[in-house]
Specification:
The protein has about 60 residues and is mainly α. The chain has helices spanning about 1-40, 50-55, 55-65. Helix 1 packs antiparallel against helix 3 (about 55-65). The longest helix has about 40 residues, at about 1-40. The radius of gyration is 19 Å and the shape is rod-shaped.
Length: about 60
């Protein structure tokens, strides 16, 4: 009986970790996009969707997910 309780707690803990990992990945992606936006503005370039999504670093992070 105790073993079943322990297994349920481990599964709950794992599920919570998965949710936190997903939130962390989304946050990192947002920060990277913000960095690209700031760099684009600082260079005086036109802001476009392509400039904010075509960076190799974003593709690297997305492939981890």
């Amino acid at each position: 009986m105790e073993e079943v309780k322990r297994i349920k707690k481990v599964k709950t803990f794992y599920d919570e970790l998965v949710v936190l990992e997903e939130l962390q990945i989304k946050t990192v992606l947002r920060l990277m996009k913000a960095k690209l936006l700031i760099e684009t503005v600082a260079k005086g370039e036109e802001i476009s969707k392509e400039k904010l999504t075509s960076d190799g670093n974003l593709n690297t992070i997305k492939s981890i997910n």
